[in-house]
# Entry
Amino acid sequence: MAQSTKPPANKDQTSFGSGGSGLRYPSNGKTIYHRPLNRTKTSELSQASFAYLFAEMVTYAQKRVTGIQDLEKRLNVQGHPIGLKLLDLLLFREPPRTQTRPLTIIALLHFIKVNIWQHLFGRQADRLEKSSNPDTPDEYMIIDNEPLVNAYISVPREMSSLNCAAYVAGIIEGVCDGAAFPARVTAHSVTGNTKEDEMWPAKTVFLLKFQPEVVEREALIGKGQ
Amino acid sequence: MTVFAVIIINKAGGLIYNRTFHEGGLNKISTNDYLVLAGTFHGVHAITTRLSPVKNVPDRNSASSAGILTRPEPPSGLEVLESENFRMQCFNTLTGTKFLLFTDTTQANVDVTIRRVYEMYSDYVMKNPFYQLEMPVRCEMFDRKLLSYIREINNR
# Structure
């Protein structure tokens, strides 16, 4: 991503047909798909440019929405394809020995907490939790004390239930779906009065609710071992 | 060493943010008076800008410029206003937003402080998707960061 793609200097030189030039097809014919997958492994991006881009994404998603849930849904949908692709990319980059896909819920959650977070935000997620409520054994939580996407965002009071980390929830959902653990993922702000909550005012809980068949399969795997 | 208040004025002369930090430093005035103060200061600033001559008229013959035209520094208007009990520093950004900092007269490094406030404004206000340009600033995150920064200075 550090490499800038030059706009074609001369239209006749492009190896693509008419109308094929533009930002998407650089004149030398080398698209992002021609680059080795490990090239951008350690490259970093500017947080400021991401913040501006994300602010525009939120503004874009805000157009013609019917409510806060609809807005969160749109942000979620924007993140979903990223998660699907990220799962494959990060597994590809693993050493061959550990290249297997996560097969249990715990392995999947660990993969998200460590690998996905490390790749996206440069650090691990802060905590993993399982729902303590016996009625909802299908719910798991990933906790981030200060999500990078919300670093500069203050949500107005009339939209207080909105959390723009719904975008990250979409990425997580994409990873889960890609790994064949279909789930619904939502992002929730935590507002409490404990000392810890005051220390992390932007603390966000990602709630993963797996489909019943996932839980069923998990139980069967447990028996088999 | 105390910072009393921060005021932000948009490029049309409207008050978009005002916050006092220290009790007893400045007398309280009504919100309406703050609006008048912002508008008046904006006008005075505009006039003082026209008073001041343009600095660094580019010398086309000098070898150092090497064909690159240097833009003359824009004329700056009123920057500091001092009274017996407080000192007001103004920082005018390139886009015409003004930051006013009211401090006591012994406060040092005000320009550093005011730049830091500007930095916070560009981070927590301009990068916030829910902020509408030129409208009053209502960003919880900006409030929080500004308060903790100023508190740190006032307790020094």
Observations:
- The domain at 3-154 of chain B is CATH 3.30.450.70 (Beta-Lactamase).
